[in-house]
Amino acid sequence: MVRLGLFITAGFVLxxxxxxxxxxxxxxxxxxxxxxxxxxxxxxxxxxxxxRFSGINxxxxxxxxxxxxxxxxVDMIVKKSAQPFIKTDSKATIGSEGIIGARILIITQGSTExxxxxxxxxxxxxxxxxxxxxxxxxxxxxxxxxxISGQVAEIMYKINNGNGTLARLIEDSxxxxxxxxMIINLKKGSKGLNENMEAAKSNFLLRGYFKKKExxxxxxxxxxxxxxxx
Length: 230
Prior knowledge:
Elements: H1 2-25, E1 32-39, E2 50-53, E3 56-68, E4 71-79, E5 91-96, E6 103-107, E7 122-126, H2 131-160, H3 165-171, H4 173-202, H5 207-226
Parallel strand pairs: 1-7, 2-6, 5-7
Antiparallel strand pairs: 1-4, 2-3, 3-4, 5-6
């Protein structure tokens, strides 16, 4: 009799615990509202998956029905405490826990001017990006990087072996010497030009011209100093 009583007690405790867990998942003990959204593709979303708003779990997916060949209706059970923050212009989208994790339904934030949703409201939706498409895009990117790295390796190989214009600029000392000599000649030319200008100023034929320019420069500087502040 004692064993039977213990068995019945344990069974009752497990039954109550199961009811509590199921009720908690379905929000049977919390005030809730029902929201809906239509998708063309739910991308593996299942009944019981979490619903998130601003990164917080606010409900679960209650039902998924195929309305026609282009529309799938998703029913959501959402905590009533989140209702004032979910606006009529909020959107429902399907994401995942990481790249290949479990699917979740995400409700985006709406504008501050919009009204909050009512029980039974239908949210606008945006179609999910398939994981296969993401992996395919990553594969294309990896392929492009491989091609680019191969081209860079080929260029470096040519430079190391003295092939190409860049390699000659780096390896050929005569080219660098010519560049240095060109710079020296430019400096000498600039110096010679300055000397010629000084000689022109000393020439009695041009002396008046340069004095006139110097006088105009002094007058402009003087006018700028004497100009009153506004």
